[in-house]
Design brief:
about 450 residues, mainly alpha, 2 strands, about 0% strand, globular
């Protein structure tokens, strides 16, 4: 099966190359597939392991390639480089190098290099999305794929709820992973609507994202998603108010009012079926273990190594982590502590620089003059990253391949839209036409044809 999978990956590259060199209509399907892929790759087994460590207790279990990787390569081979994206790219590469340096302190080395490989794949997707987002229709097609993807997961979540599952996880295997992934699709879909996209796809993304959030039964997911929606609507109206935005905002608040009882019922049902854990605070025990590990290893123990080192180094035992498989095989429920313990100060600082630079770049683009439709998408990306950054205080699943892909897509959108703005401003200066419309189009003129 591995040989067959590798053959499919190898032969998919020239096929994608031809398609991405084809007509604009065909290319749009490829752009749409970028956003859809993270939500369906696992379910349809669209990836293959070159090296497989199926029983490794870390969060990366092999050196893996997927069809999204080959599609990204094809896009890079058929498009020109996007100017003005070097700062985010360099920050991304800096984080990659920091994780690679931490691997030098890891045992076994290969386990940590698996994460570096995963990070390299994410950078590949970032570069491809940055080039696609320069196109007037690129960003909205990618977001359309995100919308379809979260709707796909929402369908499975509904089925699971009818089957009696308290905390639905879609096809992701865990509700916390679905919850973190839902932020990207939900908020960017709403941003696309606020930008004037009148297709059904963003609506489906908002509704599907809302359903997925409510059925996860996660307090952090539900609270942060609601706060993100409210913040995005308010900031968008402050940025530029239109009658269409007011209608979208009204619909959004109506959905929140309808969904709040459902989310409350899910949370009540979740805690009703959970047993009393007494005085044991597992989250605090994990954090104690992670801080002790980080203090002993300032350069980190190596990415993808936390579970092994926490047990073999005695950190979980000294921190009082319960002697049950679910606890001893789990990572600390804090992305920043996990990255710090595994990749040290160098890794955490480079990660924070990347995150912070992306948020600042998106906010600057959103509030640039004059106000443009693409600025709404940049604002949505900024709010998404802020919500995800806050969620990372309570979850570790950011380091999984699904979220790494979604993070790369979001950063790629920011980089591509920034590059597109630089190009537009340069052309305006060259033509000495300060009165021209920045993009040569209005919000309604960028509406896309509905994908088949």
């Amino acid at each position: 099966m591995r040989i067959i999978g590798l053959a499919v990956f190898v032969f998919s590259l020239p096929l994608f190359y031809v398609l991405m060199n084809g007509s604009p209509a065909i290319r749009r399907y490829g752009w749409f597939a970028i956003g859809l892929a993270p939500f369906v790759i696992g379910y349809f087994h669209l990836e293959v392991s070159i090296v497989s460590w199926a029983f490794w207790p870390g969060y990366v279990k092999g050196i893996i390639v997927s069809l999204l990787d080959s599609l990204s390569i094809a896009i890079l081979l058929t498009t020109r480089a996007a100017p003005g994206t070097k700062y985010l790219l360099l920050a991304y590469i800096g984080y990659f190098l920091a994780s690679a340096v931490a691997s030098l302190f890891a045992t076994p080395l290969v386990a940590s290099l698996m994460f570096s490989w995963q990070l390299a794949r994410a950078i590949l997707v970032f570069a491809a999305v940055a080039r696609v987002a320069r196109h007037p229709e690129g960003a909205k097609q990618i977001i359309g794929g995100l919308s379809a993807g979260i709707a796909f997961q929402a369908v499975f979540s509904i089925i699971q709820r009818f089957e009696g599952v308290t905390q639905a996880s879609g096809t992701f295997g865990h509700q916390n992973l679905l919850g973190l992934a839902s932020h990207f699709a939900l908020l960017l879909s709403l941003a696309s609507m606020m930008a004037g996209d009148r297709r059904w796809l963003p609506v489906i993304g908002v509704v599907g994202g809302g359903i997925a959030v409510m059925l996860t039964g996660s307090r952090a997911t539900t609270g942060l998603a609601g706060a993100g929606l409210v913040a995005l609507v308010i900031l968008s109206l402050l940025r530029h108010r239109t009658a269409f935005k007011m209608r979208v905002a009204g619909i959004g608040f109506a959905v929140l009012l309808v969904g709040a009882p459902v989310a409350l019922f899910t949370l009540q049902h979740r805690f009703a079926v959970q047993s009393d854990s007494g005085d044991y605070d597992e989250r605090r025990a994990f954090e104690t273990a992670a801080r002790a590990m980080w203090a002993d290893h300032p350069m980190g123990v190596g990415a993808n190594q936390y579970v092994v080192k926490a047990n073999t180094g005695g950190y979980s035992n000294r921190a009082g982590v319960a002697w049950v498989s679910a606890s001893r095989n789990a990572n600390v429920h804090n992305t920043y502590l996990l990255i710090g313990a595994e990749t040290g100060y160098l890794g955490l600082v480079s990660f924070l620089v990347l995150f912070g630079l992306a948020i600042v770049s998106a906010l600057r683009l959103a509030w640039s003059r004059p106000r443009r439709p693409n600025g709404e998408i940049a604002l949505g990306a900024a709010v998404t990253l802020i919500v995800v950054a806050l969620h990372c205080l309570y979850e570790w699943v950011f380091v999984t391949w699904i979220i790494q892909y979604l993070f790369a897509i979001t950063l790629g959108l920011i980089a591509g839209l920034s590059a597109e703005r630089r190009t537009t401003l340069r052309r305006r200066r060259e033509h000495h036409d300060p009165g021209a419309t920045p993009e040569g189009m209005t919000a309604s003129s960028v509406a896309l044809p509905r994908p088949a």
